[in-house]
């Protein structure tokens, strides 16, 4: 990888627009866990992922046609784009397979080690994004708060196969972090957010149906309106709108600070569990919310 040139309008700190977009994205990603569970009652994991990625790729292509955003021009980004797409696909495969072996709450903690990989690796290619001691403390505080939120699930007896799921969750976090690093440190940093996302969705849309067939998952179309509604929201809002906003932010703001906000996602998932599934609101959750907020403030402050 080589250090990519920065966009002329790239900003050194998060502004109100970035913070608002990040909170909205994290809120939906937290809600998305509920959507995946709803659709998962009827649709096999890899087949669900394939439907989602096919739909999102089609929406992105239509978006680019309408806005005249070139996707197939020769700009030297193909090798880096395929790398980014492969890392993105690997993250989703580890995530969906890992959920077959361990609880979502356990896997979530391991998945959100991603900001640590970003903070460790991005500064090697983009020195301006190196975190200071105070910001590292904020990063650790936010992660500790997430662990606190899921402490009960982490301390329960673990079956032998759950360790396999935990390892896949950790791998998913690593691949997510490496995807961010690749976006920031290769020629992908110089292409549009739409083209960056197109590489990721396109490769994943090609990989997931193949894996679904290899694993013998049942394919079908006769699902309930609830299941299709869940897939639609995952596709149109999750894999298209919020991921496009995420790619745009990685292009225009420091990746190390942007990545820290993802610690909000698992806590939003718990909050939605309280609001929509009548799960108890505990002191542990309130402390975790405060800890993540404090950690993000420490990382994001100028």
UniProtKB/TrEMBL annotation:
Superkingdom of the source species: Bacteria
Organism: Tepidimonas charontis
Membrane-protein topology: Multi-pass membrane protein
Keywords: Cell membrane, Membrane, Transmembrane, Transmembrane helix
CC per GO annotation: plasma membrane
Presence of the UniProt keyword Cell membrane in the record: yes
Matches recorded under SUPFAM superfamilies: Multidrug resistance efflux transporter EmrE (SSF103481)
Matches recorded under Pfam families: EamA (PF00892)
Coiled-coil blocks: none
Spans traversing the lipid bilayer: 12-31, 43-64, 76-98, 104-123, 135-155, 167-185, 197-215, 227-246, 258-277, 283-300
Protein name: Carboxylate/amino acid/amine transporter
Location in or out of the cell: Cell membrane
Annotated EamA domain residues: 17-150, 163-300
PANTHER family: INNER MEMBRANE TRANSPORTER, S-ADENOSYLMETHIONINE_S-ADENOSYLHOMOCYSTEINE TRANSPORTER
InterPro entries: AA-Vitamin_Transporters (IPR050638), EamA_dom (IPR000620), EmrE-like (IPR037185)
């Amino acid at each position: 990888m080589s250090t990519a040139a920065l966009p002329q309008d790239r900003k050194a700190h998060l502004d109100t627009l970035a913070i608002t977009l990040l909170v909205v994205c994290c809120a939906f990603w937290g809600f998305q866990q509920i959507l995946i569970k709803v659709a998962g009652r009827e649709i096999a994991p890899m087949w669900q992922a394939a439907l989602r990625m096919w739909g999102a790729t089609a929406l992105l292509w239509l978006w680019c046609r309408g806005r005249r955003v070139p996707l197939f021009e020769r700009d030297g980004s193909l090798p880096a784009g395929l790398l980014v797409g492969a890392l993105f696909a690997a993250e989703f495969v580890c995530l969906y397979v890992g959920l077959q072996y361990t609880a979502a709450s356990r896997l979530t903690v391991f998945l959100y080690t991603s900001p640590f990989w970003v903070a460790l690796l991005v500064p090697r290619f983009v020195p301006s994004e190196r975190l200071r001691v105070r910001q590292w403390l904020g990063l650790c505080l936010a992660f500790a708060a997430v662990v606190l939120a899921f402490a009960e699930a982490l301390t329960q007896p673990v079956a032998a196969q759950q360790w396999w799921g935990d390892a896949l969750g950790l791998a998913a976090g690593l691949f997510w972090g490496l995807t961010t690093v690749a976006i920031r440190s290769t020629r992908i940093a110089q292409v549009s957010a739409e083209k960056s996302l197109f590489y990721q969705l396109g490769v994943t849309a090609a990989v997931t149906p193949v894996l679904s067939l290899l694993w013998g998952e049942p394919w079908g179309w006769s699902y309930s309106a609830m299941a299709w509604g869940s897939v639609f929201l995952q596709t149109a809002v999750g894999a298209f709108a919020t991921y496009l906003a995420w790619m745009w932010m990685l292009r225009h703001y420091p990746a190390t600070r942007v990545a820290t906000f993802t610690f909000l996602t698992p806590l939003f998932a718990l909050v939605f569990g309280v609001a929509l599934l009548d799960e108890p609101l505990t002191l542990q959750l309130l402390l975790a919310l405060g800890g993540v907020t404090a950690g993000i403030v420490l990382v994001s402050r100028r």
